[in-house]
């Protein structure tokens, strides 16, 4: 009785669906490939191309491990996106370097506020800057701009 059930297409289709659903609860991008293998064996069994438990298990193993080996790395990049090292990123990734800013407050101890594109930014400068003066962004650290009264050279 159990062998007849294991050979049926319904077992493989249900196993495939269960493995695909388990990926939502235990993500690791592994169960999905075994789920695809089970669904494929279930479909082949349903149309009568595969008979016998030994062939079903063999095909399940080959399909699952084969797709895991061939596609997992590609799917991981696609699903999780690319990663980059923050230390080697472009220092002007936000397009701020060289931008002209208006000084909103006098800089006290090298710290003040500037306006860039209509928004108020915290800024730092090694030069004394006063309200109303124009400055340029020479670098930034997160959301704090480092500004200078002298315009940087355009490359």
UniProtKB/TrEMBL annotation:
This is NfeD-like C-terminal domain-containing protein. Pfam families: NfeD. The chain crosses the membrane at residues 12-41, 53-71. It is a multi-pass membrane protein. It is found in: Membrane. InterPro entries: Membrane_assoc_protease (IPR052165), NA-bd_OB-fold (IPR012340), NfeD-like_C (IPR002810). Keywords: Membrane, Transmembrane, Transmembrane helix. It comes from the Bacteria. GO terms for cellular component: plasma membrane. Residues 95-147 form the NfeD-like C-terminal domain.
């Amino acid at each position: 009785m159990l062998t007849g059930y294991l050979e049926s297409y319904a077992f493989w289709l249900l196993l495939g669906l269960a493995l695909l659903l388990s990926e939502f609860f235990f993500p690791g991008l592994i169960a999905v490939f075994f789920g695809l293998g089970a669904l494929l064996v279930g479909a082949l069994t349903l149309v009568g191309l595969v008979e016998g438990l030994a062939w079903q298990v063999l095909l399940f193993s080959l399909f699952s491990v084969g797709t895991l080996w061939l596609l997992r790395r590609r799917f991981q990049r696609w699903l999780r996106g690319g990663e980059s090292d923050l230390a080697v990123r472009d220092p002007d990734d936000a397009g701020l370097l060289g931008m002209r800013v208006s000084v909103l407050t006098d800089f006290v101890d090298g710290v003040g506020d500037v306006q860039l594109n209509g928004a108020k930014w915290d800024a730092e400068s090694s030069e004394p800057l006063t309200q109303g003066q124009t400055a340029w962004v020479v670098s930034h650290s997160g959301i704090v701009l480092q500004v200078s009264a002298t315009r940087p050279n355009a490359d």
